[in-house]
Amino acid sequence: MSESSPPHPVTTEAPPIRALLTLAVLALTLVLLIAPLAVVFAEALRDGLSAALASLTERDAWSAIRLTLFVAAVSVPLNAIVGLAAAWAIAKFDFRGKAVLITLIDLPFSVSPVVAGLALVLLYGSHGWLGVWLQAHELKIVFAFPGLLLATLFITFPFVARELIPVMTEQGRAEEEAALTLGASGWHMFRTVTLPNVHWALLYGVLLCNARAMGEFGAVAVISGKIRGQTTTMPIMIEMLYNEYLSVAAFSMAALLAALALLTLALKSLLEWRHADLLSATRRH
Amino acid sequence: MLRVASPLPGFGLGMGILLVTLTGVVLLPLAALLGQGILMGPVEISGHLAPARVRAALLLSFRAALVASLFNLVFGLALAWVLTRYRFPGRRLIDAAVDLPFALPTAVAGIALTTLYAPSGVFGQALAPFRISIAYTEVGIWLALVFVGLPFVVRTVQPVIDEIDPEWEEASATLGGSRLRTLRRVVLPVLTPSLLTGFALALARSVGEFGSVIFIAGNLPGKTEIAPLLIVIRLEEYDYDAAAAIGLAMLGISFAMLLFINATQVWTRRRIGHV
Fold it and tell me: Which of A99, B144, B171, B220 has the fewest CB atoms inside 10 Å of its own CB, making it the most exposed?
């Protein structure tokens, strides 16, 4: 989003059309994007700040917040490690089938979250393909924390890798090869050459991954079993409270997630503004 | 996978970590879904897809996604154009707000849109005198899908608009082309591949969308019940075969649509050259 030079008269629309188009776009953005955000905070604060805060400190609400933070705290670092490993192998080496592999990494983007949850239940559920084996070993995945984790990992799988692969491909491998020639060990090279070159792109990927991990609903809803206080994440809790007509409580929790979304957007804009050259040029998520 | 020799270490480690997690988290579960389909066979699958309620849900999911993505194609293009070409106060803020649907959890968007457009809501009340109701109708589903799909079109088209050299437009204007003709014959062909990509991404996302839709949809079986919700309902009834059949149908139709869009893209690229 670089600043282009002021438009030349023949290469732009007539002033009335420009004004009309700008107004139409502004109005639609206001109705479509800004109004939903505003209503979340308005509804949360309907009975005052203390009522909103009180609903968040309720036992089940508090445990949902803790669970969501825990799921994100495990899944996001895992995703970062896998994304780094994937980008390293794909960007720095040449091998056959690279395009297929990238397509497979992207697969979760074109699968409905509910279908993702369904697929996980069919594999890891008690009636699933691994159900008997898992039960024999007393491993519980579906309707338990590992299931929530798997669902979150499935949905967020491409986030970090997709951000890193183009950046690392563009940077090539000359710097790494130089480090090795100068006698650095593999890890030393990775820590002192590769990582500093991609840390802004990594942070960008992690930021988006975290937002999705904390907000994922469809896949998690299928696999959680919605056991209050045990497998209820914040988005699931929002659904439960909303369906119980506990509007202030539902919107207070929603406001918490909306605040997180705003923080994510602010940090994301900051990164794009400050370090645009170190991020991948085409971004879609 | 045949690897070309490289002096860098860590290929085995990186590829190993990627393949193990990709298989365990993504590929094996999807294989389990396909396996369930193979076990059932085509006859049983079509049996599960035969009821009117299932057909209506599948049709609704794809129709609504198509309508919303077409709207996003137009609105997204206009938004991207205004954001890259025009200068007005608040432009940066709007530009940042475009990403809101990526960052805002779908359940939050769902209850917010429902509250706004419900009969008692701000927009619901405003529309009531015109006898327009949005919440708990198919229009509500379109609205939710427009919300989730919008950034895909804007963000894929924006960088391409940014790269258009004004000299092309100047040349067209100098040769006597009207502004509209220049836009249609010079600008639009350059944007077409990215528009199609954005459309495909928005479509793929909105076909399977669940969280933002179920609150505003009303979920009336046969009318406003989307396919992902029906999967959830079947799973809650422990009817894994029926759930798997609907899931497979969704996967199949989505991939067919993406393949079609991909083919269109190859065709337009060939027709107008690489851009």
Answer: A99
